[in-house]
Sequence to fold (439 residues):
Amino acid sequence: MNSPYVKNTVNKIKGLYQHQSEYLQVVDELIDYSDIDEELTQALEQNNGLERLLQPDRIISFQVAWLDDNNQVQVNQGWRVQHANLIGPYKGGLRFHPSVNESVLKFLALEQTFKNALTGLPIGGAKGGANFDPKGKSSREIMRFCQAFMTELYRHIGPNTDVPAGDINVGTREIGYLFGQYRRLQNQFSGALTGKELDFGGSQVRVESTGYGVVYFIENVLERFQQKLSNMSLAISGCGNVALHVAEKAIEQGAKVVTLSNSDGCLSREQGLSAKLVAQLLQSKERPNLKEVAKQFGAKWHQGAKPWQQNVDIAVPCATQNELNGDDAKVLLTNKVQYIFEGANMPCTSDAVALFEQSNSIFSPAKVVNCGGVIASAFEMGQNAMFYPESYQTVDEKLKKTMRQIHTHCMENNESSYLIGANSFALKKLIHVMNLQGV
Ligand SMILES: NC(=O)C1=CN([C@@H]2O[C@H](COP(=O)(O)OP(=O)(O)OC[C@H]3O[C@@H](n4cnc5c(N)ncnc54)[C@H](O)[C@@H]3O)[C@@H](O)[C@H]2O)C=CC1
Ligand SMILES: O=C(O)CCC(=O)C(=O)O
Fold:
């Protein structure tokens, strides 16, 4: 039972932002699934900390005007939501997708702040992006868009201020264009972005780190329950950076990966997808046609379907927010899914989360499952500051160790729910730091 202060604060925020459904979904989840005891209530109330912590420090919103290949001026909207820099510079990815809006970026920035607090590394939380759709755009158009975006953003970021990285549709190529423009405008070579190519300050493992980190977290959980990944079957959604690196590492560890998907449908193979299929998708420079890939590798193609009808031990949604709803959760639970690991940010709707949390299956939230990416980014920031790159093996070992520590943080805070354990750990830490730093 939460105190009147907590309830009133949440109600005030709901009143202020009633049209921002994704943002309010995270606010509700953080409060509904945290152990807020008397001591934490006092800490939250002391400097009106909860109200300050749930809302971003600032939102930068700007117009991005760019020239398409026909010399026509196109206009998009760009944002950077700087949520909190209590424990380090603002840090979080950039997303280019037509569905991007202030609510989506506010949910992502709030989640990022809690995620980053869990890593134990000195990074605050932020998120940004634009409602730009890269589908069908030429490489030159993508470059000009990135340059126009950075021409607005550069004055708000920097290695000690705010360090963006990639997210949906922002990969190594886009980070290269964004970094090039930042370097020109600032006349400065600094680690103001992560996810860079290795040849100009990128870190080993950053590309693979989110997906590999998901698998390292899964292995920690399975070890706790005395099970092995090599005995497990997985349904994975998406076929981007996160999904493919989860698939690659899981197959390498002997697991059976049964599905991949995109917004058109789902590819499945009961005996498991081959490492070769995943490698081909990872190497593809263009957006892959999954239907064709299914044909080529003897897999089934299910037009318009999601992967959640499959009978598997582990479900790993790795595409986008709210892609797995209550009905999908019911099917998975009826089929006796044992574990659900959120690879994407907030892929499960509130009713799906409630069903998983009430069930005997084990649910692990995005903020602990997919934090491998931002962990490797923080390592990249460290390497840039030292002007000294680290080896693949060193970064990979540090990533594994950090994922294990995060698993321990969850366990120490709540043994029966990873969600409550994670939220409680981060909430306590952030509010403690906020109180130490005054108003
Ligand atoms: N890239 C990173 O380092 C990190 C990414 N994430 C999260 O992981 C998720 C995926 O990101 P990335 O793999 O980086 O993006 P990406 O752009 O590489 O891939 C996204 C994939 O999702 C698919 N997709 C989009 N909407 C879909 C839908 N409705 N149904 C099925 N598939 C759909 C796309 O076809 C694409 O294959 C996002 O939620 C992102 O915020 C989280 C932590 C770090
Ligand atoms: O590497 C980063 O800074 C951002 C990663 C990210 O966007 C995420 O964790 O959702």
